[in-house]
Structures are given as C-alpha cells and as structure tokens.
Amino acid sequence: MTGWLPRLVARLPAGVHVKLLVAFLAIVVLLITVSAVGLQALNRADRSAGPAITDVAGRVRPAVCAGLDHLGTMVSGSPEDCAREVEDAIWQAGGRPLLIAPGCTFDPAAVCQENLHAICRAGGALG
C-alpha cells in the first residue's frame, strides 16, 4: 500500500517536472485531509526504524501507537522479552497516552500465543 503514489506518478505520460508537481499536489491533499480530520494517533515502528517513543511522545497528541518490535521480539523473543518491551514503552512514554502496538502488522502464525498473552498481561498490569 505504501508504494501506490510513486507507481501512479511513474505511469503518467509526462515529463519529470509535471510528475513532481503531481506528486507534490497529492501530498498537499493528503496533509490537508489529515489536518481536517485530525490526527488521533501516530503509529511508529520505533523499535526497528525509530524515532524512539521518548522523541515523539511530547509532540503527538493525543497518543503514540508503538512499543513492540513486530519483526524481532514478537516473533523470536520470549514472553519475558515481550513483557520487558511493554514495560520499556510505558516508561518511554513518561505518563503520556500510549497505545501499545507493533510498529506494523505481524504474522499471527509466526508469533506464539504465549508472547501475545505476555504483552496483554504486561499492558494490563502496568498501564
């Protein structure tokens, strides 16, 4: 889903300047739409791509949606590792609203149920 705009612009039978203008205008429309609707949460792949929760929590209102490494800890970590990641995310948020979530989608077949239960328990006990 993330590459639809570049693919669309690349197919246009126009020069580079026109394509850049079209891409710019599409981004402007997107930003206007987001500002009109309002940003309720910002989802970040903070564990794999950054920035850290501590860097954005004070600038995003009302909540940051982050904290779990969907490529590493959720898949190959232990339940204790997952719980520690939840604890760390809550600590990084520093009392600001936080939705504990993976940085992106994850494969339910690749994440063991014990890790998911540990994440829920840690979030409920600490949040």
Q: Any overview of this molecule?
A:
There is one protein chain. By secondary structure, the chain is mainly α. It folds into 2 domains: 4-37; 41-126, no CATH class. It has 6 helices and 3 strands, in the order ααβαβααβα. Strands 1-2-3 form a 3-stranded parallel β-sheet. Strand 1, helix 3 (53-56) and strand 2 (63-68) form a beta-alpha-beta unit. Helix 1 runs antiparallel to helix 2 (16-37) and helix 5 packs parallel to helix 6 (113-126). It is elongated. The two termini are 32 Å apart. The model has no long low-confidence stretch (mean pLDDT 80).
Short characterization:
With 127 residues, the chain is mainly alpha-helical.
Mean pLDDT: 80
- Give the end-to-end Cα distance, rounded to a whole number of Å: 32 Å
Query: Count the strands?
Result: 3
| CA gyration radius, whole angstroms | 18 Å
Shape: elongated
State the share of residues found in helices, binned by percent.
Answer: 40-55%
**Largest β sheet strand count, sense and barrel closure:** 3 strands, parallel
Report strand order across the widest sheet.
1-2-3
Count of individual helical segments: 6
**Order of H and E elements:** HHEHEHHEH
Give the structural class: mainly alpha
Give the tally of structural domains.
2
